[in-house]
C-alpha cells in the first residue's frame, strides 16, 4: 500500500501495480467505535481505521481455522516452520509491557528459520507466495518479514501467486491474523494490521 495522507489510502495489486482501491473519507461503522473507512474490491479488503491503523489481507486461501495475535506492543521473535508450504509460525510478542507465551500457529516441523527483534525494532514489510498444492488447499508457500532495521526472516519456496506489502517510514505491523488448514495443517492465509506513520 501507499499512504498519501491520513484521509486517502491506495492499495495496489502486486501483479499490475495498479490501484486496487482508493479510499477517501468514506465513514462506515467501526467495531472499536469512532471512525472507519473501508472498501471491498476484487475479493480483498483494505481498512483505514481512525487514520492510524490499516487492515490488509488476507492473502491465500479462504478455508481453515482462524488465528489472530491481536494487537501487540511489539513482536520479539518469529519462527517460521517450512517445507513445500509454510507449515507453522511461532510468534512471541509483548502486550501491556509483558512478554506473552509464544503463540504456535499451525504445526512445528524440523526445518525452520527465525528472527529475534531488538526492543526498538519492528516489522515494516511482509511478502510471500501462495498456491493450490495437491493434497492441500491453497496454502502459503513462502513468507518474508522485514524490519525497519533492514533485517529479515525468509522461508519457503517462491512459487505461485505473489503478494507484498511495505509500509512507509514510521509505520509497522502490529498484528498477524489468518487461517490454518485442516486436516493437512499448514498456514493457508495470512494478513496484518499496521500502525501508520503520523502525518
Automatic annotation (TrEMBL):
Residues 53-196 form the Jacalin-type lectin domain. PROSITE patterns: JACALIN_LECTIN. Keywords: Lectin. The keyword Transmembrane helix does not apply. One of its GO terms (molecular function) is carbohydrate binding. SMART domains: Jacalin. This is Jacalin-type lectin domain-containing protein. It comes from Musa troglodytarum.
Amino acid at each position: 500500500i501507499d499512504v498519501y495522507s491520513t484521509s486517502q489510502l491506495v492499495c495496489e495489486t502486486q501483479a499490475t501495480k495498479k490501484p486496487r482501491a482508493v479510499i477517501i473519507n468514506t465513514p462506515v461503522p467501526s467495531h472499536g467505535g469512532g471512525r472507519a473507512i473501508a472498501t471491498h474490491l476484487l475479493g480483498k479488503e483494505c481498512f483505514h481505521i481512525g487514520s492510524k491503523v490499516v487492515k490488509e489481507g488476507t492473502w491465500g486461501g479462504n478455508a481453515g481455522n482462524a488465528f489472530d495475535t491481536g494487537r501487540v506492543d511489539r513482536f520479539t521473535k518469529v519462527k517460521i516452520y517450512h517445507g513445500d508450504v509454510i507449515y507453522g509460525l511461532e510468534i512471541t510478542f509483548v502486550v501491556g509491557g509483558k512478554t506473552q507465551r509464544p503463540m504456535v500457529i499451525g504445526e512445528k516441523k524440523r526445518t525452520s528459520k527465525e528472527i529475534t527483534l531488538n526492543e526498538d525494532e519492528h516489522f515494516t514489510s511482509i511478502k510471500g507466495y501462495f498456491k493450490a498444492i495437491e493434497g492441500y488447499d491453497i496454502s502459503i508457500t513462502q513468507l518474508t518479514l522485514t524490519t525497519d532495521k533492514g533485517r529479515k526472516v525468509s522461508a519457503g519456496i517462491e512459487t505461485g501467486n505473489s503478494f507484498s506489502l511495505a509500509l512507509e517510514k514510521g509505520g509497522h505491523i502490529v498484528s498477524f491474523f489468518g487461517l490454518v488448514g485442516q486436516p493437512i495443517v499448514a498456514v493457508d492465509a495470512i494478513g496484518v494490521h499496521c500502525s501508520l506513520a503520523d502525518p
